[in-house]
Amino acid sequence: MTAYLATRKGTQILTGSDRMKERPIGPLADALNSIGAHITYLEKEGYPPLEINAPNPMWKGEIEIDGSISSQFISALLMIAPTLPNGLKVSIKGNLVSRPYLEMTLSIMDYFGVKHEWINNEITIAYQNYIAKNFNVEADWSSASYLYSLVAINPGSEIEILGLSNESLQGDSAMVQMGEKVGVSSVFGEHKLLLKHMDQSNDYFEYNFLKQPDLAQTLACICMAKEIKGLFSGMETLKIKETDRIKALKNELEKVGGSLSLLPPKFTKSLDEFYLLEGQYQPPTAAIATYNDHRMALSFACFACLGDIEIEDPNVISKSYVKYWKDLEKLGFELEWLEE
C-alpha cells in the first residue's frame, strides 16, 4: 500500500496498530522518496504512520537497494515499476534474503502481462500495462505448515489438504522437504496434498531459513515436540516481523522445556547467526503469549497433541488462518474458550 499510494494523486495517511507503528518501513519509504515519491513520517522517523502526498511527475528510473531488507519492500517496488513513466531498474546490493518471494512476485506479474529482466543483481522492468486476467489463488503453504506439525507429532495420522500443487511458486512449499526430515511424507494428487506420518524421522534438524523465514516458528515447535535437536540459521528478518520472533520463540519455548540459544561466532564456520534448539518437552508452565503475532499462536498450538495448552489472544490468527481453531475441532481437538 505504501508503494501503491506513493503513485497516486492527493494525500493519504497510512497507519496501523501500535505494533505496526514499531515495524520499520524507512527503507521502503526512503527508497520511494529517492525516485520521486513524497512520503513523510508523522511520528517516529522511519516508522508508520506515514503521510503520502502526490509524487513528483518525473520519476527516476533506477534505484539501488539493500538485499538484506525485507523482500516485501523490494516486491513493492517491483509491482509499481511498470506503472512508472520510465519503468524501473532495481539494483540489489549485498546478500539477497527471501529470493523465492521475489521470484513469485515476478512470476505472477508475468502472468498479468508484465515482462522483466533479471541479470546478476539487477532487475529491470520497462513501462508497460498490466493485463487483467482470471487468476486462481493457490492455497497458502505457510498455513499448511501447521497441519504438517500435527501429522509430524501424531503416529498413524493423515491429513488431506485441498488447493496445493507440487509446482507451487511459493517459497514455503519447501515444507515438503522439511517435512521429510521431521517425519511427514507428502503425496500429491490433482490440486490436493495428502500428509502422512512416517515412523522414522531424524533426531537432528539443520536448516537455513533465509528463503523461508515464516516457517522457522513451525519447525521450532515440531522439533521441540519431538525432542529433535535443531540448528537454525538465516533468521535475521524475524526480528522485524509482527514481533521480534526470535525473542518470542526463546521466551515461549522455555515454558515447554526448551531453549533457543545464539551460538558464539567462534563455534560457527560462517558469518551467519546460528541458533541451537534443544530440550525435553514438559507441560507448559504458563499460558503461551502470542505478542500480537498470528504465527506464534498457530505454531504453538501443536503442543496440544501432547497435553493441555493455553494460548493467549487466540483471535490473533485472523490475520492469516482465520478458521484454524475450527479446523482443529474437526480434527478431534477439544477447545475451551476462556473469558479475558
Describe this structure in words.
Helix content is 27%, strand content 19%. By secondary structure, it is α+β, with helices and mostly antiparallel strands. The strands form 4 sheets. A 4-stranded mixed beta sheet has the order 4-5-7-6. β9 (184-189) and β10 (192-197) form a beta hairpin. α5 (141-153) packs parallel to α7 (216-225). The longest helix is centred in the N-terminal third of the chain and has 13 residues, at 99-111. The mean pLDDT is 93.
Largest sheet: 4 strands, mixed
Order of helices and strands: HEHEEEHEHEEHEHEEEHEHEEHH
Radius of gyration, Cα only, in angstroms? 21 Å
Spatial order of the strands in the main sheet?
4-5-7-6
The structure class reads alpha+beta
Oligomer: single chain
Q: Provide the residue-averaged pLDDT.
A: 93
* Distance from first to last alpha carbon: 34 Å
Shape: globular
The number of helical runs is: 10
Q: What is the helix content?
A: 25-40%
Number of strands: 14
Low-confidence stretches: none
Note the beta-strand portion. Answer: 15-25%
